[in-house]
Design a protein that fits this description.
With 179 residues, this protein is mainly beta. The chain has a single domain, classed as Metal Binding Protein, Guanine Nucleotide Exchange Factor, Chain A (Beta Complex). The protein is 0% helix and 42% strand. The chain is built from no helices and 15 strands. The strands form 5 sheets. Strands 4-3-11-12 form a 4-stranded antiparallel beta sheet, with no helix packed on it. The chain is globular and about 45 Å long.
Amino acid sequence: MIRNLFRSPASPAGSSRPVRSGLHDGQESVWDYPRPPRLEPCDERVRVVTAGETIAETTGAYRVLETSHPPTYYIPPENVRTELLSVAAGQSICEYKGLAQYWTLDIGDVHVDRVAWSYGEPTAAFRPIERFLSFYASKVDGCWVGDEQVRAQDGDFYGGWITSRIVGPFKGGPGTMEW
């Protein structure tokens, strides 16, 4: 039961369990997201900008929703300026999505290592995002969902995008790895 994951306000100080934030109309709590994660289409305009250039823009993104994480957005490669990207060193594995490859961005004098990642051969559940790219909001000048500029999830391990419609607390910052 999700309720057992949350520290009540009366819990002793120093507890590693988070206190769930309250919801307002139209908001989602990351603590209501599933584990294993869920993939869902996103028809809102999703945009990534850096060095004054739009790097990616689409209304055909997917978002991945996973307990304690803000959504990660995956953009179809045909809506990304892939000529500005090159394969970066290293890979990682997600137990749910498969083997991830990282991408470096070079635009003018701007070089951003491991700015994005993708899954070349994702697991069956995540096949719709095959070769789609997800960008770290912390490594570019701005990312938007609709007309709202997102805030990057703390740390760069998960790469979630936080909007005013998403409430936490969010995993990723110092002291949250035990959640």
